Fold:
Amino acid sequence: MRLVSISMLTPDMVLARSIYHNDILFLSAGNADLPRYAERFCKMGIRTVYVEDGVSEGIEIPDAIKEETRSTCKMVLRNTLKGCIAGENVSFKQLNKSIEDIIDEVLKTEDIQVSLNDIGAVDEYTYQHSVSVAVYCLLMGRALKLPRKHLTYLAMGGLIHDIGKIAMDKEIMFQQGSFTKEEYEYAKLHVTFGYQKLSENSMIPAHAKMIAYSHHERIDGSGYPLGKKGDELHLFSKIAAIADVYDALTTDRCYRPKWPAYKAVDYLIENSGTHFSPELVQIFIKQIAIFPNGSMVLLSTGETAIVKDQNRGLPYRPIVRVIKDAQANEITPYEIDLLHKLNITIVESELENRRNNVAGYYPQNMGYAKE
Ligand SMILES: [Fe+2]
Ligand SMILES: [Fe+2]
Structure:
């Protein structure tokens, strides 16, 4: 299995992971007529899909949670949060059940460095993002060996952290381009607005409400809404800040394509000690695949390869399957374990997510970040 850009779909490819749209199955795994759907994918804001083809045969892509679990959770979350915002007396029974399922699945992946493989339409962003933030929080909570009760707080906090966005002006929140200063000030209100809505609800644990209120705080005091710093911040707030930013950066947005995982990891490292807890960033990095299985990479030899597997504890040196030579000619695939070929490095990754203009790909200035 591998991840390919929708512009690269060919008739020999078979869909490897089902695609859901608004909680409904849009295309099931096994579909073999993918080029026909390319335009539809594009309109839905889907830029890449998982496929099986000859060159990717035998490559497995471990996911932290099953796509059914993720899809069910998104649906339950949508109903629960909308009810919450409307001031209805919603039941949290189903959401609590989803949280237990997610925790069970995350705890099972103990020894795997994961990448989250959610392919979704852009209009589902808030729910997709919330589930991913919950999973990333849980991966850190698991590494810290937190008790199960605390894992439920973290998961609930991740799921509801951006609840305030649901009732805000979508024209502003999901526009293309950067925020103006005024728009940014408006967007920041999602934390206080969300917290107000949540505080009325006695079904939600206080720790989860706190995550909704404090996930934009930064350890140097530069965050919002209170500008708390260092030890004034709860462990869960610091965990959620990392999960939130990492997922925002590695997801396609209407105003920019997703960053490769390694680039988002660089961003976390660069901002360790200022925005993020250095200890927690190190723990987080150990849980994720920096060069995810199934992604296309460029080697220092000029060859193109697909990441086949990870070497545990050495995330920069995975096992790769070379599929094109330095002149971009297709070749008979062969594998290299980068652990044993230290003279070869990965110089670029997730090529399938790139747009044509590589030079302008990474924003140098985050401006008023929209995570
Ligand atoms: Fe937020
Ligand atoms: Fe967020």
Q: What stands out?
A: The pocket of fe (ii) ion (ligand 1) is lined by residues 161-162, 190, 215-216 (CB under 6 Å). DSSP finds twelve helices and ten strands in the chain.
